[in-house]
Amino acid sequence: MRTSNSSFHGPLPLMLLLLSIIAATIFFTASSSELTVVHGAYPRSQQSDLIISFNGSDILETRAPGNPVVAPASEEVCAKAWNKGYTLMCWMQNPQMAGAQAFSPFTRFQQLADWGWTSQGGQAIHIGGNWGTYADPGLMALLGHPMYGQSTGHQAVIYHTQARGPVVVGGRQVTYPATMGNYDNVFIADKGVIIAASNWGPASKLAEGIPGWDHNTNRLPDLRQLSDIWWLLWEQVCSQQRVRPSELRYIVSKDTVNEETNAIFARILQMYWPNEEGIARGIAPKWPGKRITKEMDGFPTLVGTPSVWGAAYMLIQRAGTMGRKEIKSITVWNENEHVQRFYQPNIMIEVGDV
């Protein structure tokens, strides 16, 4: 095992420096609305899009029958993720550094309906009891053993089913069509836990292809980022349960299928634990998995992955309500170690005060 003083070898430090300079210019001028965050467990389409592949199969190679292999991300991909993650870490420490990206215009639960979000079938959003149970030892460590007949927190499954417009934006008439993007998350307010079960945002649906979409006159809904969705639902559940939103402690991406995320995690795991058999194939071990803390060199790279950076954005943009929070550690483990057809790790993001 390498210690927290382990570092990348070879040309990566120089690449990090050069790419940091280049990417910083791009990153600080980019709009957060263009960043799409997707976690997910249960793919709804076998057609891969630009963000998620079906069951993560596009990153699986077969070294031997029944032994999935995740190819580690390239040095270039890791360097870009490091730059983004390091920037987000700085912003979590001091949200004012984020400039316009330190704030979100979405502060009211009603805005979900205003932007076309509903429950299934177009009904008003309903947040109900979560009657599913979790046999995964990592989740049981957070939530306790499931009790028969008792709900575990509250589940919100929302769909983008309602169009908006036409309206005039910048002198041009545009429409916001329904995209059927969908977000499925569980909120356990008394434990301070959010579980991301299956999240397929409007951008991923557009990447798959939306019939009749006109890129000249159609727009994605402004309210579409997972960080905003999480916050509005989390705040609503906390209000109902009389829990302060600042009590958030963990965000778990369950059964993560994002290609880039899993490839980057494979590389970082191999950096610290190269001789472990599963990790040598890019696969995280079973619970308690591997925990990477903010003091370790690979940590910013993980913060800069698509399945983690949404949590960072939420902490940055909601600091005015929750106080300054940051990601303290990231734990990854493979709940389905016995399953040989696919690889969908769980990622636990620990949240704490700055």
TrEMBL record:
Name of protein: Uncharacterized protein
Top-level taxon: Eukaryota
Signal peptide span: 1-24
Keywords, ordered alphabetically: Signal
Protein species of origin: Cercospora berteroae
